[in-house]
Amino acid sequence: MATTTAPLLVSPSARAARSLAGGEIDAYLQRFPPRSPGTDWAITRSSRDEVLHRLEQPPFKNGKDSTHSMRMVGARLLLRWLETFEGETWQQRWNTSPGSATAVGWTEAPLAWGIAHGRKPQKAGLGSGLLALVCADVIRPSMAWLASNLSPHLREAIEAARDPRGFAALRNARMPGQPDQRRTSKALKALARILAAKGGAIDEIVAGDVLELLLVATPNSTSHTRLAYALLQSRGQFPPDAPKTLRSIEKRAGQVSPAQLVDRAGSLAQAPPSIRHCLSGQPLPFTWWLDMIGTPRGLPMPDRCLPPSRAEPPNRYWCSDSPFPPTRTDDIHRP
């Protein structure tokens, strides 16, 4: 079978402008991958009647009767609408529906379907019904979907339905630079988004879950996501080699290889001289090191960066024409 090569879609000039920002968070996501939300678990395999019965029980049935009635009307219509899509589970049907693409305007399709079938659905009722299905872990919207969802009831509903003790423990936790109650509440909402997207409880959140949310968070909620990470990190929930903080992590390049710098430059010829020397195996000129460090001549240099005549004892790691030669060779630090 013949294979074809895709055309070059990025010009060298465009590659030259490629930013290395974000490399650090990408590397951490490789080491600490987020949990997969899955498409098949016990609750999402339930029948429509089983799901509706579950929503009639505490903690899902609470508050005013009128509010609960509107929630149930919305949930019933959504389940009937989802039954028109392919899938063996409610999650699979949700994933194939147009509502899963984005939280902006997601109610348009089920509203149109309801009207076409002689119903009189309300947008608020559909939103309330979906929130009930999410809290009951019947449907798990994507992290990006939840990051752009502005429901003011998400944190409260997820907390009551999923893990009241876990949220209470974080709310009462003490950490350096203790945040105020308002910021803590925003951070807990970020954690509620993670539980809605991944399932489980607070103790099951992994570092990659928070990193994934940070990448899709809106500009107004990135600080809340970082604080959510700090709350979990302060109680030792993440491995010792996980990031200590998420401050500006999505902007940092992290450790960059010479090959990445060449790729960013577009070609080896356009790469910085130091990178060309490293990749060619040639030692860097001694004067380059002096210019790079910007200090008086006389600092210790690596063997491969010194001419052979200067790499001999007694001052093996010292520039021989330095105006400040060392008095003892054991005073010299190998870099």
Written overview of the protein:
The protein has helices at 12-16, 23-31, 48-55, 65-82, 90-96, 108-116, 123-135, 143-147, 154-162, 164-171, 181-198, 207-216, 222-234, 258-265, 273-280, 286-293. The protein is globular and about 80 Å long. 47% of the residues lie in helices and 0% in strands. It contains 16 helices and no strands. With 335 residues, the protein is mostly helical. α7 (123-135) runs parallel beside α9, α9 packs across α10 (164-171) and α12 (207-216) runs antiparallel to α13.
Summed up, the helix count is 16
Helix content: 40-55%
The rough form would be described as globular
Question: What is the helix/strand order?
Answer: HHHHHHHHHHHHHHHH
The strand count comes to: 0
List segments where confidence is low: pLDDT < 50 over at least 5 consecutive residues: 1-17, 295-299, 301-335
Radius of gyration over C-alpha positions, nearest whole angstrom: 29 Å
Largest sheet: none
* Percent in strands: under 5%
* Amino-to-carboxy terminus distance: 54 Å
Return the average pLDDT rounded to an integer: 78
Helix vs. strand class: mainly alpha
- What does the oligomeric state look like here? single chain
